[in-house]
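2024-03-11 09:14:02 INFO worker-7 job=invfold-0412 stage=load source=structure_tokens
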């Protein structure tokens, strides 16, 4: 039977969408499969009525010229903008201004970027891939009753999720088991009026918190009083099994404590809603790998932020590096076969 596609990409975060769009533009038949209802993966936007939160990636920075070129196009197309927020750091004693890095956000939310890139691509949402089987030189990709065939499959997801799909004793497994991702509990809060805090984003170096941001301070967001709080990786790992309601109560307590330290005596407005969510595989525990992607001779490949330092830019670089190799374009990063 003929392969229906040249390549099937599993996972529609920044890495998978970048890869898929690049090979599509080079003329290859690509299919993108994503288990969630929307595109973007950890570049997630959550809505509840008029309330909106970026509850995964908060912003992204740019260092590589290739990513710079793409981000410049996004800015020109009103898909991204610079977040001019007041960003501070708090260590429990001193509030100081953070680095003056240029921080970009998607418009009107972080998901907008993957949505725009995936626009021309054949894509199935709410399609959780359950198994990969090798047959007659092709990969059979199965989700429920559906099966697709291709000589190449790219798994664009955190290593633990890729490991569940790799066949037993596959050579790529040792790479996925060697990598570790750390969790992040997030708390999405909305208030009846704006909390009076002297910053728009705050790096917190004091347990249990690591980050706090006023979502409405980002460009293109509605003027609602929606705030995002992140727990530290260590605290999140220690509280992985706790029900979300209990985590929400603990993190709200930590937030109120923080407000009292930063703005003593200033009342915090009444809360309208709060919701906790755990990103089980939020960020890689280790350093960037020496390889932008991993590929085996049988046509399976792994890409994702975890191979390139765990950020939005790393996910892009991983996806584009593999796509370049598959399209016969010059490489910009190290590439190696397993
Ligand atoms: C709380 C948090 C805060 C962050 N803050 C920042 C930040 O400020 N700046 C920054 O640069 N980065 C940040 N990051 C990291 C950034 O979000 C990631 O680096 C980037 O989005 C990863 O993209 P990816 O494509 O590699 O993976 P993902 O975005 O995780 O995409 C993987 C996709 O695969 C799908 N998938 C998994 N298994 C299957 C399956 N079996 N079948 C079908 N689909 C499947 C998933 O649903 C997901 O959509 C943050 C991440 C988190 C969680």
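2024-03-11 09:14:09 INFO worker-7 stage=emit residues=338
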């Amino acid at each position: 039977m003929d392969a229906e596609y040249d390549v099937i990409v599993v996972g529609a975060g920044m890495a998978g969408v970048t890869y898929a769009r690049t090979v599509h533009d080079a003329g290859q038949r690509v299919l993108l499969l994503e288990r969630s209802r929307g595109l973007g993966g950890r570049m997630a936007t959550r809505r509840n009525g008029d309330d909106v939160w970026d509850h995964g990636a908060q912003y992204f920075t740019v260092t590589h010229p290739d990513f710079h070129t793409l981000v410049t196009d996004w800015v020109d197309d009103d898909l991204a903008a610079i977040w001019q927020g007041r960003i501070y750091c708090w260590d429990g004693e001193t509030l100081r201004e953070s680095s003056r890095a240029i921080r970009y956000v998607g418009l009107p939310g972080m998901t907008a970027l993957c949505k725009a890139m995936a626009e021309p691509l054949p894509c199935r949402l709410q399609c959780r891939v359950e198994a990969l089987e090798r047959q007659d030189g092709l990969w059979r990709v199965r989700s429920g009753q559906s099966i697709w065939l291709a000589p190449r499959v790219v798994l664009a997801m955190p290593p633990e999720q890729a490991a569940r799909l790799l066949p037993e004793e596959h050579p790529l497994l040792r790479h996925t088991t060697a990598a570790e991702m750390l969790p992040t509990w997030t708390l999405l809060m909305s208030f009846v009026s704006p909390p009076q805090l002297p910053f728009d984003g705050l790096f917190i170096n004091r347990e249990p918190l690591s980050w706090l941001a006023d979502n409405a301070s980002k460009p293109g967001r509605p003027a609602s009083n929606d705030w995002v709080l992140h727990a530290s990786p260590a605290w999140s790992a220690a509280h992985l099994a706790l029900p979300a309601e209990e985590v929400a109560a603990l993190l709200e307590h930590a937030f109120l404590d923080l407000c009292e330290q930063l703005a003593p005596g200033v009342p915090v407005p009444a809360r309208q809603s709060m919701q906790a969510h755990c990103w089980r595989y939020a960020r890689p525990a280790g350093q960037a790998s020496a390889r932008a992607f991993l590929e085996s001779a049988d046509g399976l490949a792994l890409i994702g932020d975890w191979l390139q330092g765990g950020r939005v830019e790393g996910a892009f670089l991983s996806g584009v590096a593999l796509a370049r190799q598959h399209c016969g374009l010059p490489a910009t990063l190290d590439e190696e076969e397993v």
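2024-03-11 09:14:09 INFO worker-7 stage=report msg="The first strand starts at residue 7 and ends at 10."
2024-03-11 09:14:10 INFO worker-7 job finished
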